[in-house]
Amino acid sequence: MDFFKLINARRSIRAYTAQPVEEDKITRIIEAANHAPSAGNLQAYIIVVVRHLKTKQALSRAALDQESLVQAPVVLAFFAHKEMSAAKYKHRGHDLYSLQDATVACTYAQLAAAALGLGSVWVGAFDDHAVNHILKAQPDWRPVALLPIGYSAEAPVRPQRRAVKDLAREAAPHP
Ligand SMILES: Cc1cc2nc3c(=O)[nH]c(=O)nc-3n(C[C@H](O)[C@H](O)[C@H](O)COP(=O)(O)O)c2cc1C
Prior knowledge:
The chain is α+β, with helices and mostly antiparallel strands. It has one domain (3-152): NADH Oxidase (3-Layer(aba) Sandwich), CATH 3.40.109.10. The chain is 44% helix and 15% strand. The protein has helices at residues 3-9, 23-34, 53-61, 68-71, 82-115, 128-134, 164-167, and strands at residues 45-50, 74-81, 119-120, 141-150. It starts with a helix and ends in an 8-residue tail after the last helix. The mean pLDDT is 98. The protein binds flavin mononucleotide. Flavin mononucleotide is lined by residues 11-12, 14, 66, 121-125, 159.
């Protein structure tokens, strides 16, 4: 699908059918994340693939009982690897670049899922500490996003967006 059609058509999907997600599609989604830009090309993030029902249920409890995390056959958890970026970029890597690396990777993964005919939703409302505990994260990882992925069981209407003219403005000349 044309890129612009894809980004127009992608919606957050929170209800999924029971149809499993093919392994090669999971692989392609992770490969797409691997193409994402990252600070210094360090790719300072970790993706944890979650398929186990009890683990998904625990993640859901850590995320305000969001049902999407249980229903989806697979959940990708994106962690910023803070020390990996800090080793080169110090505080900026620790506090910013590693989070941005994980964010961009998740964005690529979400778009790849859509391109493969799969639904997903970016889940950001969770208890960091609980997610770290459930997924046995290392102390220098920070969970950035949980991405449930599956075949859609809903067709949400497109939500309103801000007007483009309100999003972007021309810079005033610098004296
Ligand atoms: C940083 C971030 C956090 C989000 N957290 C949640 C969440 O916890 N649960 C949820 O259902 N959707 C979550 N969303 C999805 C948004 O609600 C959704 O993208 C927005 O309503 C626009 O809808 P669309 O994705 O269909 O365009 C999050 C999205 C982002 C980017």
